[in-house]
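Fold this sequence, please.
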Amino acid sequence: MNQGCYPDFKSKPVDFGNKVKHTDKLRNLENALAASSLITITDAQGIIIHANEKFCETSRYTQNELLGQEHRIINSGYHSKEFMHTLWQTISRGDIWRGEMCNQAKNGDFFWVDTTIVPFLDSLGKPYQYYAIRHDITERKNVEEKNRLIVGALSDLVFIIDRRGTILDFHAANVNRLAFQPEEFLGKTPEAIFSPELAEQMMQLIRRTVENQRTEILEYSLSGKYYEAHSTPLEKNRLIVIVRDVTQAYLMNERLREQAELLDHARDAIHVRSLDHRILYWNDSSTRLYGYSAEEAVGQATRTLLYADSTIFDRAFAELLEKGEFIGDIEQIRKDRRKILVQAHWTLVTSQDKKSRSVLCVNSDITEKRQLEEQLLRAQRLESIGALAGGIAHDLNNILTPILLAMEVFQMGTLTTEQQELVKTIKMSARRGSDIIKQVLSFARGVESHAVPIDVRNLLSDIERIVRETFPKKIRIRVNVPHDVWQIRGDETLLHQVLMNLVVNARDAMPDGGQLLIEAENQPLDAQYVGMLPDISPGNFVILRVEDSGIGMAPSVIEKIFEPFFTTKGVTEGTGLGLSTSIRIVKAHGGIIRIYSEPKKGSRFDVYLPSWKSEEKNAIDQILMTAPRGNGENILVIDDEASIRNVTQQTLEAYGYRVVTAPDGAEAVALYAAQQDTIHLILTDMMMPVLDGLATIQVIRKMNATIPIIAVSGLEANGRLARLSLFDVKFFLPKPYSAETLLQTVHQALQEYKKLN
């Protein structure tokens, strides 16, 4: 340790191309891998309340000796009163102070530290604690002092000049490398020594030094080499200019810059975290994968930032500590709360003394890869099931055919009433088996449709007739088919099978009775609408809808409902082939099936089929041309589906609204509490994690009883509107919705609010 402190000739870095930018990024990585900070915390009066182990080691004080003492215990007396007064003024008004200081250890040794002091402010904006982060730069200061004392031996060129740039004295470490003798420099100015361009840069350096009265730095290249000129003010209007050859350091920085660029261009997300899980370094690929910028991620806790379930992280970290590395697949979450699967390779970074310092994480996104693998396995499984089902169906047909024929023969004879009932039962069971076999064959062989124009009204009328004749009377049936419904093109027999599967499922979901709705509607699908639907393109569609008020389904059931042989019915009540066959038929017709259901709140199946005629092909453009526009109103959009949030935001902003978004009710409530004076309308989904739509509306209503709210859901029946009316929610938007429906609903809600206010 040195026994004295020296003047500080170091200035802030000067931009030299992109060198600083990339060097700073690499320095973040180096700092992440080496925890060497000296940290203290003082209260508002400057009393030390915390000192870390590194600070105690450097200052030679124990924690017990430091705690409760004034920060002046480490003062060296080197700095002037003006310096200390300026420092105290800066932090006491709540600003961060950064600079270099000389402190004194317990044994009397002086040590220099690069110091950052961060005030922590109370609710009134007054500092109540000061957080000081120091880095020991004593060794560097010693080197600088030695350079100052023997500068002629360690520097390439040293000039003593006056304010006009005239050289008063000169020293050179390697005189024989100069093109002329040192005495030829005396009395000259930069214009007489350097090229005009470099001479002007030198004069600007001198002027900055004189004006700022501090060390200034100029970096330049000459004849393929790189130099730094450090200009420092002296007494009597003189300056000392030290020119150093930094070619080797420059080339090393170039290599570091290239390595930093490689890290940022790497496909893998690379970040470094401390052993207490704080993120220390974050490359550009991490931003691309997770959605957080480096500024947002650095300093955050990994286990809460990237994991919905921290136990997953804890198990992986335990294996890392045990083995020194962790390699495996692990589920994480992005900023938009979307789950992703990454292949993780974590490595413990150790110091020379073999102590663990941090964790280097290299994560590769394999979400899409895993999904494709699962789809391939599913396709292979379905192909195998189809082949097996086809073989079984063929054999069963051969078995059932003679049974049905024999029953016809028996009925021609003289049978008792009991025998007649028995034969009837056998005949009905055989026919039911025959119908099941037809579904199996449709599933096994694929859908072979014969496309012809289909009148939707006739198709649904036939379904209605069958339903009214065969369904229990305790099920109320309502059919709604507009007169101008468009035609569709397809195989009427196959589509009849699809609708029969849906209405039979609806019947079985209402064992105690209820309401069954069968309807059709024309639906032009614009970009807004299809943004909420998979595997479908914009165009004109007809929606065939079957909705019941029955027992409904949980999300776990909905995920599997189209799998072959999956059923929630009893062994003798269902085969699990109805919906798997239906989805294949609908996809073969260029359509999709959408399900909306909640436990105990019923289910709705929407079958989207392309319309046949093209007379409405310009309907979307005509609708959007006349859609109402906004006037800068700010709308809060709440939905846990990122795709729906994004496309809704883009549509509203395209029509003159401003939009803020939230992925769930909890975040929405916090956002509204902070911005309620600027938000004019709220559009919220009803089914969300954390805090659902109804609970979100209740909380917001306590803050603002009059703000217009639009509720959004895939289901609108079963008393939902009645419940919403209790919280003065007058507008409902069924999912999925078109841009025209969205814009009209938003416009109506805002207009009604203006009338009432």
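The domain at 452-610 is CATH 3.30.565.10 (Heat Shock Protein 90). Residues 1-23, 149-155, 175-180, 614-620 have pLDDT under 50 and may be disordered.
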